[in-house]
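Predict both folds.
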Amino acid sequence: KGVTSIGNYAFSGCDNLSSVTIGKGVTSIGERAFYACSKLDTVINYSPLTLIKGYSDYGYVGYYADKVINADEQVGDFFFKTIDGVHYLSGYLGKDKDLQLPENYQGNSYAIGDKAFYDCDSLTSIVIPDAVTSIGGVAFCSCSNLSSVTIGKGVTSIGEGAFWDCGNLSSVTIGKGVTSIGDYAFCGCSNLTSIIVDESNQMYDSRNNCNAIIETSSNTL
């Protein structure tokens, strides 16, 4: 955490480098600092810089990586980041097939951040606890082995593309609190055969076991 800068070409060409953890003190990453690190799989970032998967201005640090996680704290295999007072689950490094999310974060509710579980092909089922308030954009996108999702009553919004391309997803249960579902939230879920909306939900329903999400006020699928 004492390091404040990473210089130009600092790790360039370290072609066996597989993981990098960046401390909270880093405020600058130099030109091509991680260029040609072709085996760099995981980047965990505790600094105030916002790093992304793919090319960015920060020395190619996310260019090759499968996972780039921006975090303040690690709890087990989960990472959390707090932004403007909102706690986000920002990433996951575990291999559990049946994902048991934390019941809360430091006694508080939390949101699942954008891309938090993107391309986690180890997941087969998820129960989202009541402490979770929202599911971010493409949060579970391309989880190719995910087959069932149960969304707790605390979730109010499901982000754009949240479960996009989860081709094995066959059942979804939506809690009573959901009032917003983003575009393409379940796009590409070609095996989705069971959709159940909690009967107490005021915005949506799945009447007569129709296996669809219906906006109650407009009768729109």
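Second protein follows, with its predicted structure tokens after the sequence.
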Amino acid sequence: MLVISEDLKTFNHIHPEDLGIITEEIKTKAEFPLPYTFRKAGRYTILVDYAVRWKSFSQQFFVEVAGSPAMEPPDTRSTREQQIDGYTIKLSAPEKITSRKEVVLSYSIEKDGRPIENLEPYLAASMHLAVIRADLGRFIHTHGELPIT
């Protein structure tokens, strides 16, 4: 499950097994409880990826969260570099991206100008990528692979 806020500042990726054991009863009922606390009021999209008999599916739902504080309007300025908690994350992509054509995206993570070399897979993947329209109307969630060296 992915939770993404309309202001594009919240992105959470949760697997049911991250929160406890998946019992036979849960599997039989096909009901996977995922407790979650929304930190700000506003509109969120909930994206659910699942598989049945080795076939993958995705569903999207919207929720309106009441209360305060309210989220700010989204900042949709395009940037390929972010500073987060002392780390610099850089996205590499072609200047021009064309619809319906495969593109290779990559990223690097640095701290104090030096590459981070001890990264570990997160939720069984070396990279998680979500591409979502600014209006939260459509999305893609995929996993990247480590480059062959």
